[in-house]
Amino acid sequence: MPEGHTVHRLARTFDSIFAGEAVAISSPQGRFAAGAALINGLTLARSEAFGKQMFLGFGSGDTQPDEELRWLRVHLGLYGSWTFAGDDSVRVAHAIGAPRKRIGERETVLAADQTIDDSAHAPASPLRSVDGGEWEAPEPRGQVRVRILSEHAVADLTGPTACEVIDFPAARAAALKLGPDPIREDADPMRFIERVRKTRSAVGGLLMNQEVIAGVGNIYRAEVLFRHNVDPYAPGNSVPAETLRAMWDDLVELMRDGVRIGAIVTTQPEDRDKGMDPVALAANRAVTRQNTDGTPGAVPRDESFYVYHRAGQPCRLCGTPIALAEMQARKLYWCPSCQR
Hints:
Helix 1 (4-18) crosses helix 7 (241-261), helix 4 packs across helix 7 and helix 6 packs across helix 7 (241-261). The chain has helices spanning 4-18, 33-39, 168-176, 189-197, 203-206, 218-227, 241-261, 278-283, and strands spanning 24-26, 43-50, 53-59, 70-75, 81-86, 100-103, 106-109, 144-149, 153-158, 162-166, 323-327, 330-334. The chain has 2 domains: 4-175, N-terminal domain of MutM-like DNA repair proteins (Alpha-Beta Barrel); 180-334, Helicase, Ruva Protein, domain 3 (Orthogonal Bundle). The chain is α+β, with helices and mostly antiparallel strands.
């Protein structure tokens, strides 16, 4: 499941590619035909991310108030993804897993903010007609729930957990159910602190509760707890308010940086070459795909985290093997010594 920074990057991508344009919306799969018909031909006026949910507002123009728009709410869940394609005028800033563009029947992984440039695929790109005419979108691949098509680009949605067209009150209600989002400028950190402090539930579980804090997933949960030496099993009401505020401020910086670079990096430069046990690393085959994989100068995935996906490897700070357990059916990583 994507973490919040990914959804914010997606919202920005829709804003940069489709904002202010009337778009054709369809459901090649057929399961969303009725919903697509409600917004087909309308203009994308707003693109908003709240935690792990994205809201696209469509109307008769790009100056309508939010209250008059029809909203497409999408929650990708575990298996959802957006794939983008376009002509040379389009910048692909993000797609789930890694930014992708379609070159005929081949899919090419892009760097986080790489511009689509079909000139590298001489003599002619299959994304354009051979005679230099108008760009033609590739055929849908897989079970495409929603296709959003403009003159220059296309976005295909597959496998979402939630996909619906709703009015403004319903969209607002869905957003208000969520906790504060560290990436958003309008977020109130006190809502997060108060919700954690009023319960004895484990803080490690509360950080994954989207009604407590929106957008935090398994990676940010594990890493921020480690960075502040907090036991994931500590009751929420036992964690000092000042510690929770420091964790919030840390998440603001980490998650906004994730939006900027398209990857999660939580380690300090001086710690990245520590705790690299080749034997334990080979035994722990789990990997985390990052949008910056293969990008020159990017932090390698094996050096990006303190504890996440490092079970059995030495803690980068104290050398204790990183522990692994399950909490609320999700894998939990932590250092038993640093997080007493």
